[in-house]
Amino acid sequence: MNDIKPLNTLVTQIKALMTQARAAVAQEVNAYNLKTYWEIGRIIVEYEQKGNVKAQYGTQLLKDLSKRLTQELGTGFSRSSLQNMRNFYLAYPICQTVSGKLSWSHYCELLIISDKDKRAFYEQECQNASWSVRELKRQIETSLFERLLLSDGSTNKETVLALSREGITMSKPEDILREPYVFGFLGVREQKPILEKDLEKRLIRHIEDFLLELGRGFLHAGQRTVN
Fold first, then answer.
1. Closest CA to 43 of 24, 62, 30, 28
2. Which of 51, 136, 200, 203 has the fewest other C-beta atoms within 10 Å?
3. Is 172 in a helix, a strand, or coil?
4. 121 in helix, strand or coil?
5. What is the model's pTM?
6. pLDDT tens digit string along 200-224?
7. What is the number of other CB atoms lying within 10 angstroms of the CB of residue 33?
């Protein structure tokens, strides 16, 4: 029995080391994957350019390239995947501006956004708040960017640029809470009345999404029974 505690300590230390090592390896693999996809996009664009300043996009090239690469390298080279790699390079022509904190799946979602400032905002907020891909998609679908711009009743270029550079900043207490809230994840229709007790029940069932909607810095410490 005397050896149980030291053994538990040893196991805990080894588990911590393995967890740290796996996280580091995953980060390195992710960074290498992003660089590889960026390079593939660059090769495609430069082939399309053929000495011209602007690339001439052609879907047939991607179809043919997809077929050949799939035959020789296997899965992962569908036409849509190659198009994402191409767009990845065009959106981030300087490889150093690509963040290793985000995954390829994050960038595939970001590339759907054509507005550069809007895309930059979501990219920055992904890093600041450690959003999952699922959360990124939810925030885009609920128009977080537009809601923040209109929260003071007006929009301006300076606000747009600040959001795209820094994401959401918390310079004053009211910045911690978002306004207006969007509770689409509860299945509540916009402008439809709902009783407070029913809203509370739905919020408890979706507490994680609720806290994410409130903003950063919130933690679910427990819940009480709702009668």
1. 62
2. 51
3. coil
4. helix
5. 0.67
6. 666 666 566 556 655 555 555 554 4
7. 13
